[in-house]
Write a structure and sequence with these properties.
This protein is an all-alpha fold. It has 12 helices and no strands. It folds into 3 domains: 12-103, MazG-like (Helix Hairpins), CATH 1.10.287.1080; 140-215, Helix Hairpins, CATH 1.10.287; 218-269, no CATH class. α1 packs across α4 (61-84) and α11 (217-240) packs across α12.
Length: 270
């Protein structure tokens, strides 16, 4: 094939697929791309998904366009390697996704009524997914919850699955009691292995508390990370005005500067 498509600025999806094919060409491709496997590319795929989320959170729409392209390229990379191994093609990936969306939206693409709430549509979606899992011989309630998910997200998904069959606390109060219980067990842990276990239990029940309160724990922690970064940046800026750095200060002073930054933020919120 000529290079016309490679250099066509309006080549769209065919252009990207051809670029990926050429990068993996055993004779003329890129040595780095040729060395990659599903396992080595997977961490980049996860990283690109987070960068998409980050651009959305910052409402950086032009940056989002680029990050979506990076994430799309990850799908193209995996599909090219699968094609080379005789597993499946990119078109089969796209067709499979289209089939899934049509099957999961009978109220849009079939003869079911659209006259139902978003909650009912969510329940119907879960019913369809349960049938799909059964067809894959995934008989366990927790089967199919991906191991590679971020731990907090996977915890919530596991808890939601268990809740569907009644394995759940009826109110937030019981979850709060469990948080206190896990805190006590962490305090009483006698060695590193026990502390590790109890700390994990505490994180798990905190994720459950977020679910009961309608809070996404991953989003809440991201917000807390952003707040910490912002306020620590204010500490650095205040010290820089005096020609100093954090290592030239002490905890008491930095704590006071933190409180000052916190007060400014509260005032700005009104």
């Amino acid at each position: 094939m000529s290079d016309d498509l490679i250099h066509d600025p309006k080549g769209g999806m065919p252009r990207l697929l051809e670029i990926m094919r050429r990068l993996r060409d055993p004779e003329t491709g890129c040595p780095w791309d040729l060395e990659q496997t599903f396992a080595t590319i997977a961490p980049y795929t996860i990283e690109e998904a987070y960068e998409v989320s980050d651009a959305i959170e910052r409402e950086s729409w032009e940056e989002l366009k680029g990050e979506l392209g990076d994430l799309l390229f990850q799908s193209v990379f995996h599909a090219q390697m699968a094609d080379e191994a005789g597993l499946f093609t990119f078109d089969e990936v796209a067709d499979g996704m289209s089939d899934k969306m049509v099957a999961r939206h009978p109220h849009v693409f079939g003869d079911e009524s659209r006259d139902k709430s978003a909650d009912q549509q969510t329940r119907d979606w879960e019913t369809i997914k349960a049938a799909e899992r059964a067809a894959k011989a995934e008989s366990g309630v927790l089967d199919g919850v991906a191991l590679g998910l971020p731990a907090l997200l996977r915890a919530v998904k596991l808890q939601k699955r268990a809740a569907r069959v009644g394995f759940d606390w009826p109110t937030t109060d019981e979850v709060m009691d469990k948080v206190a219980e896990e805190m006590d067990e962490l305090r009483q842990a006698e060695d590193a292995a026990h502390r590790f276990e109890e700390f994990g239990d505490l994180l798990f029940v905190m994720a459950n508390l977020g679910r009961h309160m309608g809070i996404d724990p991953e989003a809440a922690l991201r917000a807390a990370n952003a707040k910490f970064t912002r306020r620590f940046g204010a500490i650095e800026a205040a010290l820089a005005d005096q020609g100093r750095r954090p290592e030239d200060s002490d905890l008491q002073e930095m704590d006071a500067l933190w409180d000052a930054a916190k007060a400014v933020e509260k005032a700005q919120k009104g």
